[in-house]
């Protein structure tokens, strides 16, 4: 591609160039492709990890595949470039490169979106403010109701469609790629080598690299500026910085290689598009292998946490042989038993005692604010802490303070005479639990779903999903003019209070309905966010201690 090695009389070579350099390009392309496939396979196998689920791997993989196809074509351009028609080169560069950049932008822009949306979990007021859905929505309302991924894909697909139209239009009107039709004055003249060289430059090629230049020089700096105060633990900010810096040189060096005569000697061995290929390779490193490294670090930290927990529990149980079990299932089951809360301080406790469920539960009860801030602004998992806090508030409000037995079910409400106040409490309890389900569990309503097992999700869906559809749409959506004609729905003036459920409460509902889900998320926090939080707090305490000592000296 863009390679114009001459033969005698200005004719193009009739065979590929498989010399020493060509052999190196082939071997390197095969090697890097296999390494890249290995990295993508590693991420795919670990795709259920929270730190990868939030990234949207499908978009990243789509972008990397398209960009790598272009990268391979460029790397092998030294070998077969003189034999390839300019029109084929034009379509490869006009489709694979901008389409790959578009998908990469859709994937990487999730960083800013997730960071902004996670801020909602910082405040104390985490009550849902959804309104019941209506079928009679305007186009703007329908657009706003779409989730971020759908919106971004719609915009990206629109941009890709425009790029496809632009590429087709310029291919048709330019006679550089075909002499039989096109706008007069766009044709090229001279020997075959001169024609190919002239067809490989010009305004027709500029839109192909515009999107790469636009992202590296404008979009990425804007994202970084808007997220300047965020320092996440997932490597997302580092990835954006690395990809931005890696792409700055690509388009300028491509233009220099094409239009500066002094670069002709370099172009014989390093064709101009290879400057873009360098940027793509660095982008692949930051997009695929940086997350791989973060996954390995997380697995190591998680294993350290499990071993610390096992040592702590073995010592508390007085294990005579000191044997340690770090099996996840055994640790998880042991935490489901009732346990006494112990006062635990991060700064004063040993590593073994801090990395335990007791320490986490103590923090959630006594001072959850800093942990909530860390999980939302740095770990992008604020929904987990918010979910635990909402459950604790719900349980305290309806069961602990009022002395209502948590095992009391709706069946007992039906069979045993109760006071009207207690019936109202049960209904209010269900409505509050329904909001928790919709905010954090439901695939239809939760912006950030908590990572529950399919068993827990099905259990909660069996209790709440029907009511959620009635209240928030999809089932018997009421006419706003006659809301009382639809069972299970009631409208008030207050948009929050209007979300009420007056239908039948499932018999399975009781005060223990969230217990399994709560313990599952606690385990997730303990093995994911909590060790990072402890490490960050210790680092902060160490810095403050050093500053205090230096000041006193």
Labels describing this entry:
elongated, 553 residues, disordered C terminus, Rhopdopsin 7-helix transmembrane proteins, mainly alpha, 2 domains
Can you walk through the features of this model?
With 553 residues, the protein is an all-alpha fold. The chain folds into two domains: 8-118 and 145-295, Rhopdopsin 7-helix transmembrane proteins, CATH 1.20.1070; 301-541, no CATH class. The protein is built from 24 helices and no strands. It has helices at residues 20-45, 50-53, 57-75, 77-80, 86-108, 110-118, 139-145, 148-173, 192-199, 206-226, 236-247, 250-259, 264-267, 273-316, 328-335, 351-354, 357-366, 369-377, 382-400, 410-415, 420-440, 454-472, 515-527, 529-552. α1 runs parallel beside α14 (273-316) and α19 (382-400) runs antiparallel to α23. The model is unreliable at 320-326, 328-350, 401-424, 475-497 and 549-553 (pLDDT under 50).
Write the topology of this structure:
Elements: H1 20-45, H2 50-53, H3 57-75, H4 77-80, H5 86-108, H6 110-118, H7 139-145, H8 148-173, H9 192-199, H10 206-226, H11 236-247, H12 250-259, H13 264-267, H14 273-316, H15 328-335, H16 351-354, H17 357-366, H18 369-377, H19 382-400, H20 410-415, H21 420-440, H22 454-472, H23 515-527, H24 529-552
